[in-house]
Amino acid sequence: MHMRLTEKRKKILQILKTHKRVMSAGEIHKKVPDIDLVTVYRNLDLFVKEKMVVKVHLKDDEVQYEYQEKPHHHAVCGKCKKVIHFDVSDDKIKKILGLNNFDVEEIDLVVKGKCQKG
């Protein structure tokens, strides 16, 4: 399915592309106050379904979204909340996991700890 990129969708997607970080729907809404929050959520869900944006669970309480030019994973400092982006191939992760009779469809890897400053 190819969706039509309406003006509202373009604005929401542009926010994610220009900020190049994970953002909550609320943060995105603040950048485009002319678009109501329900519409922001609805379009973010559509972007995730179309694999244009990824849904990221970095904090326990809030889902965030990110436009990724290149797929990557995240490490989060529990003290200063810094988010570090790192690359490791899904194939390498699958090999380490050793799930032989399991068809992995998606890997959402978040490493939690403390950075050098934290």
The total count of strands amounts to 5
Q: Tell me what portion of residues adopts beta-strand conformation.
A: 15-25%
Give the rounded overall mean pLDDT: 89
Between the first and last Cα atoms, what is the distance in angstroms?
A: 44 Å
Report the major sheet: 3 strands, mixed
Shape: globular
Low-pLDDT runs: none
What is the H-and-E element order? Answer: HHHEEEEHE
Fraction in helix:
25-40%
Strand arrangement, major sheet: 4-3-5
Q: If you compute it from the alpha carbons, what radius of gyration comes out, rounded to the nearest whole angstrom?
A: 16 Å
Specify the structural class.
alpha+beta
Given the structure, what is the number of helices?
4
Descriptive account of the structure:
- The mean pLDDT is 89.
- A hairpin with a 5-residue loop joins β3 and β4.
- This protein is 35% helix and 16% strand.
- The chain has a three-stranded mixed β-sheet with strand order 4-3-5, with no helix packed on it. It has a two-stranded antiparallel sheet with strand order 1-2.
- With 118 residues, it is of the alpha+beta class.
- The N and C termini lie far apart (44 Å).
- α2 crosses α3 (37-49).
